[in-house]
Design goal:
8 strands; Rossmann fold; alpha/beta; 16% strand; four-stranded parallel β-sheet
Length: 225
């Protein structure tokens, strides 16, 4: 049986899952692992608060335990990386979070990374995570577009705000690479990169790229991650 990677959208918005699935099309290749995307039905419409983050951990654990024998790796497609360390305790299969992978990828592309957040209230939560990763000094800034997850389907509004924020991160804060701080926005990555003139990392693509490498090289998760 071909190896498979499961990408889990922890919110319940199917449109976000479809966007994630489309974003991963360039990573599907003959002979490579199959990449499948699912929606966590128990999740809220968007992961917008710490309570949302905490609330999806138990159903994520249940899902991964049910699917563990069927998949070679798991990707949690939410920029807060909900339940990442709990899931790594629950399986020796690779478990990757898009925030961690997006940031680590950005560090290979520039000296100072900026993050485009969706909501202003998410930034404090993200900054705690950046500090926990030990890369706070490499963060130029994180700025919001102030659009709810369910409003992201308004492409003109969303892209316009992303360009404004991306240019501010570059010109006012000194970022030389930008991370998109939400899953399912890959359709904006290339045009945004062209508009702001510096690399733009789509974190779900970054995480699945790493998952493919982990699967192909047979690197399982170590205990205690």
């Amino acid at each position: 049986m071909a190896e498979r990677i499961l990408v889990i959208n922890p919110n319940s918005t199917e449109a976000v899952t479809r966007g994630i699935d489309q974003a991963l099309e360039p990573l599907r290749m003959p002979g490579g692992p199959a990449i499948e995307c699912v929606t966590l039905e128990e999740g809220p419409p968007g992961i917008e608060t710490q309570q949302h983050v905490d609330g999806v951990v138990a159903p994520l654990l249940k899902l991964v335990r049910e699917k563990e024998s069927q998949y070679a790796a798991f990707v949690i497609a939410c920029y807060s990386d909900p339940g990442l360390h709990s899931l790594r305790e629950a399986t020796r299969k690779p478990v990757l979070g898009i925030s961690e992978c997006g940031i680590l990828t950005a560090l290979t592309l520039g000296q100072k990374f900026g993050v485009i957040a969706i909501l202003r209230q998410s930034i404090a939560r993200h900054l705690r995570y950046v500090a926990a990763l030990g890369v706070r000094e490499r963060l130029a800034a994180e700025l919001p577009v102030d659009i709810s997850v369910v409003e992201l389907s308004n492409e003109q509004k969303t892209f316009g705000r992303m360009v404004e924020v991306g240019k501010a991160l570059r010109h006012q804060h000194g970022a030389d690479v930008v991370v998109m701080g939400c899953a399912g926005m890959a359709r904006y990555r290339k045009p945004l990169q062209d508009e702001i003139g510096i690399p733009v990392v789509e974190p779900t693509q970054a995480a699945v790229s790493m998952a493919i490498g982990r699967v192909r090289l047979n690197w399982n998760s170590g205990s205690g991650q």
